[in-house]
Amino acid sequence: MDSRAILTDAASRPVDAASQVLDGLSPDALHTLPEGRHNSIAWLLWHAARQADVQLAALNGEDEVWASGEWAARLGVDRGAGDFGFGDGVDAVRALTVSDPDALLDYLAATMDAVATHAGGLTDDDLDEIVDMRWTPHVTHGVRLVSIIDDAAVHVGQAAYVRGLLEGWSIGY
Length: 173
Hints:
Elements: H1 3-22, H2 27-31, H3 41-60, H4 65-68, H5 71-75, H6 90-95, H7 101-120, H8 124-128, E1 130-132, E2 139-140, H9 141-167
Antiparallel strand pairs: 1-2
Helix pairs in contact: 1-7, 1-9, 3-7, 3-9
């Protein structure tokens, strides 16, 4: 298996897990902030998709999926391009509600599909290209893609954990 195949497969994993998290989830549970102050499942899944979308757009120079798919309107989330919730406090997390959980999953899927499509079209030289010199060692295109996918997987895992806290639920069981 080559590096592109690994990256494209990895990009599909957060969507599969998020589908399980959302399956049968009530709207109340979707928007509950554990202990009234921790991130809701809706916010975590939105953020998983948004961080990937924003970072991919910066990496490939294309428009965000958020804008091209009119996802703000489809989800009922009044957030603009470039806003992915970094630094959101409790009030901003509580204010983020989605009108359609299926659309939230669709947005995550569209974003991770864009990541997979981008990764699948790269050469080994492309993956080795330095894209960020602010870090030591410098960040390559491939490392940035791994980071994007890892961030999405972590946030989806957090959403699964929150569902477990709220409902005693476990992914895959």
